């Protein structure tokens, strides 16, 4: 599904702003059937949880309703009218007046509906969107719902970030010609200095296709006719980490020689290859520096915000980072486009986090459950996981910034059943996109030798907490343990390794001359210890600190108003470690 845009043949109205808002209630069985009778208004985009002071809203489990009226521009007569929801967490349903027009499961990927038959150009309609935040053993990510003694439903989940819900990204009304460009896949290769741009276009009906590629100054550098086209660009300017260059591809659908639709998308010419234990971008070894991030800010929750987008990328540039992982779910498309334009490398992750019931059991002392079983993570979750992969690749396949798919974070890859669960999903990812490597993020409890799936992947990502969850406060033991482990991965697989999480919770303002956990000095010392080991292990091709910034989690005694492993605070102030990282990473950047 292509992102809606304005073009010579398309128009777009952003439906962001304040919507009427209400929790689901037995008193109003059909909230879409009339104007919502509610004192509450909620902004779109934003998670709803932290907006209101009422704890029943923050901890609500189930459906919530957003509603507003929308006028269809009168000039849209003759076109298709589309509603597009960039994300509804975790399940969404859309009504136009009394008619259900769309349903979608999965909280971090877009969906749309053609509503032409239900609306009139020039007239208003009532748009109602329901969002359901429930996580079960059949959803990705998974969760369980318990019923408390007082009858309240309580959502439990196995991942370490708050279960924010709502319409956290934009909602759009779009026009599109009846005969239109429906999809496009762009893959680039290099032959010497010539860029090869392969373009596969899908049109909605019988129409001819014309592709035109322009350079950044607008000069046409190539054209091609047909749904399957190849454009050769002599002396191509490459999309490089830290030096983005984007060509502009315009696709036209033609009927009887007349242009009926036009769709444009930026194209970065670059190659990705895994060779032995190296990760190559444009044939050059690439070393990832940066972070596992989150979409998380005060008040907005996971609500997308362009000011934070710009500021976060500024801070990543300041600190010398060249990459990040979209931990632990696909991010807003605005983020991906920004990375494309600014040359930031992205490991694009699905929301398959928390597929590890032993892990949570270990921490809470609750009985351990087998992760991969019919009653826990079984066929239904696997089907949901496959669907998320299809939708993620469909959405993000054309971003030059995306260099690799991460299909899951910290699954129970040491438990029986892991291989049966993952093998078809890796296969599916490769079929969906043969042009990018596939990785997964390995958890500390499944080291080399006990992990059952790592050989299926091109690159092995590791989250390790030596010096924090193990060897707490003992950095000498931590250093020895980390090096021994990395050497084992290196010799067993011979594949590139990336440290996708390492770090320590840190309260800004806590200081110590000793190795004291929670102090700013200790966070720096843990990172320094990892860096000494990273520099000694050749197969280690990247380091992404956990986390870019502090973020909110569910309530618990392991967290102090959220996870404090940020190098920046939640409001983006640097802790001492930020300065140390800046020294290391800017020096590495200057040497590259
Ligand atoms: C992890 C998880 C991440 C947590 C982190 C932590 O391994 O991947 O989601 O937030 O550890 O801080 O415990």
Automatic annotation (TrEMBL):
Keywords: Glycosidase, Hydrolase. One of its GO terms (molecular function) is carbohydrate binding. It comes from the Bacteria. InterPro entries: Beta-gal/glucu_dom_sf, Galactose-bd-like_sf, GH, Glyco_hydro_2, Glyco_hydro_2_AS, Glyco_hydro_2_cat, Glyco_hydro_2_CS, Glyco_hydro_2_N. Residues 272-588 form the Glycoside hydrolase family 2 catalytic domain. GO terms for biological process: carbohydrate metabolic process; glucuronoside catabolic process. Residues 179-270 form the Glycoside hydrolase family 2 immunoglobulin-like beta-sandwich domain. Coiled coil: none annotated. Residues 14-177 form the Glycosyl hydrolases family 2 sugar binding domain. Its EC number is 3.2.1.31. Belongs to the glycosyl hydrolase 2 family. This is Beta-glucuronidase. It comes from Agromyces tardus. The lineage of its organism: Bacteria, Bacillati, Actinomycetota, Actinomycetes, Micrococcales.
């Amino acid at each position: 599904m292509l992102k809606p845009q304005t073009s010579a043949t398309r128009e777009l109205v952003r439906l962001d702003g304040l919507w009427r808002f209400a929790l689901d209630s037995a008193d109003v069985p059909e909230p879409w059937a009339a104007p919502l009778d509610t004192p509450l208004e909620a902004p779109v985009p934003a998670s709803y949880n932290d907006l209101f002071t009422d704890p029943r809203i923050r901890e609500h489990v189930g459906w919530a309703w957003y509603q507003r009226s929308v006028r269809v521009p009168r000039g849209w007569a003759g076109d298709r009218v589309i509603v597009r929801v960039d994300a509804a967490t975790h399940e969404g349903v859309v009504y136009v007046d009394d008619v259900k027009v769309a349903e979608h499961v999965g909280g971090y990927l877009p969906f749309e509906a053609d509503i032409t038959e239900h609306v009139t150009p020039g007239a208003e309609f009532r748009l109602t969107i329901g969002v359901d935040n429930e996580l079960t053993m059949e959803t990705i990510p998974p969760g369980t719902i318990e019923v408390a003694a007082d009858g309240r439903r309580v959502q439990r989940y196995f991942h370490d970030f708050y279960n924010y819900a709502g319409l956290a990204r934009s909602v759009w009304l779009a026009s599109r010609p009846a005969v239109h460009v429906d999809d496009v896949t762009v893959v680039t290769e290099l032959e010497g200095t010539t860029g090869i741009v392969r373009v596969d276009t899908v049109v909605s009906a019988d129409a001819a296709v014309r592709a035109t590629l322009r350079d950044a100054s607008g000069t046409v550098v190539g054209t091609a006719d047909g749904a399957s086209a190849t454009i050769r660009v002599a002396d191509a300017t490459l999309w490089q980490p830290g030096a983005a260059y984007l060509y502009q591809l315009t696709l036209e659908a033609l009927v009887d020689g007349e242009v009926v639709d036009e769709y444009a998308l930026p194209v970065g010419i670059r190659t990705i290859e895994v060779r032995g234990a190296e990760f190559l971008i444009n044939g050059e070894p690439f070393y990832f520096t940066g972070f596992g991030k989150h979409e998380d800010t005060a008040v907005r929750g996971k609500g997308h915000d362009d000011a934070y987008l710009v500021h976060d990328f500024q801070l990543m540039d300041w600190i010398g980072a060249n990459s990040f992982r979209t931990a632990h779910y696909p991010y807003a498309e605005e983020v991906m486009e920004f990375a494309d334009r600014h040359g930031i490398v992205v490991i694009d992750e699905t929301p398959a986090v928390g597929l590890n019931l032993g892990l949570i059991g270990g921490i809470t002392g609750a009985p351990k459950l087998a992760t991969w079983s019919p009653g826990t993570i079984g066929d239904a979750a696997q089907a949901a996981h496959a669907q998320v992969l299809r939708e993620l690749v469909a959405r993000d396949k054309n971003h030059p910034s995306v260099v690799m798919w991460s299909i899951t974070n910290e699954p129970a890859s040491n438990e029986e059943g892991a291989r049966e669960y993952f093998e078809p999903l890796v296969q599916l990812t490769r079929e969906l996109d043969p042009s990018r490597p596939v990785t997964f993020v390995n958890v500390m409890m499944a080291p080399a030798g006990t992990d059952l799936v790592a050989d299926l992947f091109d690159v092995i990502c590791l989250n390790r907490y030596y010096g924090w969850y193990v060897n707490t406060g003992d950095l000498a033991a931590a250093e020895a343990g980390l090096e021994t482990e990395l050497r084992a991965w290196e010799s067993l697989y011979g594949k590139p390794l990336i440290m996708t999480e390492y770090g320590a919770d840190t309260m800004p303002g806590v200081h110590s001359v000793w190795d004291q956990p929670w102090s700013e000095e200790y966070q720096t010392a843990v990172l320094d210890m990892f860096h000494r080991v990273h520099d000694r292990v050749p197969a280690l091709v990247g380091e992404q600190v956990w986390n870019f910034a502090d973020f909110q989690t569910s309530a618990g005694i392991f967290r102090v108003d959220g996870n404090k492993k940020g190098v920046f605070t939640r409001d983006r102030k640097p802790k001492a470690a930020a300065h140390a990282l800046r020294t290391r990473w800017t020096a590495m950047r200057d040497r590259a």
